[in-house]
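Example record

Each entry pairs one chain with its bound ligand, magnesium ion.
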Amino acid sequence: MIDRVQAFYGLERPPFGRASLAPGMLHKHASHNEAVARITWCITNHALGVVTGEVGAGKTVALRAAIAGLDAARYTPIYIPNPAIGMRGLYEAIVATLGGSPSYRTASLMAQANDALAAEVAERGRVPVIVLDESHLLAHEELDAVRMITNCEMDSTTPFAVLMIGQPTLRKKMKLGVLAALDQRIAVRCQMLPMDLEETDSYVKHHTKLAGRTDALFTDDAIHMIHTTGRGLPRAVNNLALQSLIAAFTAEKSLVDEASARIAVNEYLATD
Ligand SMILES: Nc1ncnc2c1ncn2[C@@H]1O[C@H](COP(=O)(O)OP(=O)(O)OP(=O)(O)O)[C@@H](O)[C@H]1O
Ligand SMILES: [Mg+2]
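Structure tokens for the complex follow.
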């Protein structure tokens, strides 16, 4: 189906695809740029940063863009895609990524993780960057493990950086009880806001251009409808734009108009 859509609209590649884009191909809207800048600051200053945003706001994309912009010889990312792996799991991931074999005794594993983090800088001259994606899923015990890893001031003398990325509930979670100590160490907070209408418009044009079409494919009305329903969140906008394109194709229309977008929106709302 999608190859027929592609041929019909003269596209060289599937538009709005799920494949991850190279950093140079990303759309640079305000919240993306700001998140990349803050994440980069956090890493280069060996600080603790928290990035929150709704589902599909572009958090992981911004994080990957920031990491790709670093000098690979000077930083070692320790990327934990789903940190709900228990306290041991967190320490094991750190030790294993830094080339050690994790001890099976929990007390020595903790010390081993701390030593491995310190040695990475001292012996290899590389700063570890611990990234906990989907951090809103962290249980209290795991957040406490993060608190213990960051049991220092987290300033330029700290030999590593920590980034916690997650949905907005993460912010509230970190203010509770013993975790307030963790909350106080946060040097960078960044909430990724959705795109505004103008940005969604330019975002959709950017994606169609990446697919090989330079002229407008979506009418302003269609963009407006996609923006309102997708609330300017990149993943939702991608999905809605693709479904609108398919609806336009089915109706053999040369442009994606409001009626095509409406079909996509109705389907989207029905499955929500
Ligand atoms: N700056 C961008 N340029 C181009 N596409 C983007 C950009 N930001 C996000 N996207 C698109 O939106 C999708 C969702 O982004 P991402 O996975 O970063 O969201 P997220 O906030 O991490 O979501 P989740 O809460 O589900 O983890 C990406 O797969 C990509 O297709
Ligand atoms: Mg993500």
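The radius of gyration is 22 Å.
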